[in-house]
Design brief:
Elements lengths: L4 H9 L6 H18 L10 H13 L1 H4 L9 E5 L7 H7 L4 E6 L2 H13 L5 E5 L2 H4 L9 E7 L4 H8 L3 E11 L3 H14 L2 E10 L6 E9 L13 H4 L4
Parallel strand pairs: 1-2, 1-4, 2-3, 4-5
Antiparallel strand pairs: 5-7, 6-7
Helix pairs in contact: 1-3, 2-6, 3-5, 8-9
The site of S-adenosylmethionine (SAM) has 17 residues, from β2 and α7.
Length: about 240
């Protein structure tokens, strides 16, 4: 099997096929991730096949919850993107999306800028800071069609960090895995206070693996009250009930 055969087979399960250029971009992304990870903490996963499956395929699995992404030039923000997941693999596969990546760690943003430049991904907006601070009444509040986030916080906390960015009529789609039912029960009221409503959950295993993934699709049905998000740190320390 060549280097990317399994990866491309996995993507086909989601109805995604990639071009030679996109294949090269993923290989370069992997190379940069491995190189920079040797001197900064970006990911615990470094094996080639694991990065392909657990970072790249997993990121792209958003198409199962939001198939329109394959054609619509949506504005999408990834909160707590870390080494670029899920935002950058989505941008590689769907270059027409208008992508914003936000993270509170400056050195990770340096890595992201390098990846964007070397892969020639075009315009990607990078925001350095806490999610709580950029959702204040400003240019970034309620501006995005889609907000995604993976491995950042529990659903109640994450909803307070993410829903303020989504425009009414847009969607917040967190990547969840374990204890999703419990998290949904604990965050139902918070989601509704923040202007959201759970539309559905999409549950599946990543192709040819036992890695479980749940994508929760939350509709933004009304504006988030101005008092949210509360000041930085509070959404995690005292999640809304
Ligand atoms: N989303 C990536 C992934 O799935 O691989 C990274 C996950 S990493 C465990 C969590 C990331 O969220 C870190 O890069 C951290 O700096 C960022 N983060 C946590 N809380 C944040 C906040 N309040 N505002 C912005 N970034 C935050």
């Amino acid at each position: 099997m060549n280097h990317t055969e399994q990866f491309e087979k996995d993507l086909l399960v989601f109805g995604v096929s990639i071009t030679e250029r996109q294949r090269e971009q993923f290989l370069k992304y992997y190379e940069l991730l491995a190189e920079w990870n040797s001197f900064m903490n970006l990911t615990a996963i470094t094996d080639f096949d694991e990065v392909m499956k657990k970072h790249f395929v997993d990121s792209i699995s958003l198409v199962k919850a939001y198939p329109q992404i394959s054609e619509k030039p949506v504005r999408l923000i990834d909160i707590g993107t870390g080494a670029g997941f899920p935002g950058l693999p989505l941008k590689i596969v769907f270059p027409h999306i208008q992508l914003t990546l936000l993270d509170s760690l400056q050195k990770r943003l340096k890595f992201l800028q390098e990846v964007i430049d070397r892969l020639q991904l075009g315009e990607v907006e990078l925001i350095h800071g806490r999610a709580e601070d950029f959702a204040k009444p400003s240019a970034k509040r309620e501006q995005y069609d889609i907000c995604v986030s993976r491995a950042v916080a529990n659903l109640a906390t994450l909803s307070e960090l993410c829903l303020p960015y989504v425009k009414v009529g847009g969607k917040f789609i967190p990547y969840k895995s374990e204890k999703t039912e419990e998290e949904i029960l604990a965050s139902g009221n918070a989601i509704s206070m923040l202007g959201g409503r759970i539309e559905k959950q999409i549950e599946f295993e990543l192709p040819e693996s036992d890695i479980h993934r749940t994508l929760v699709v939350i509709d933004k049905i009304k504006a988030t009250p101005k008092k949210y998000p509360r000041k930085a740190g509070l959404p995690a320390k005292e999640p809304l009930k």
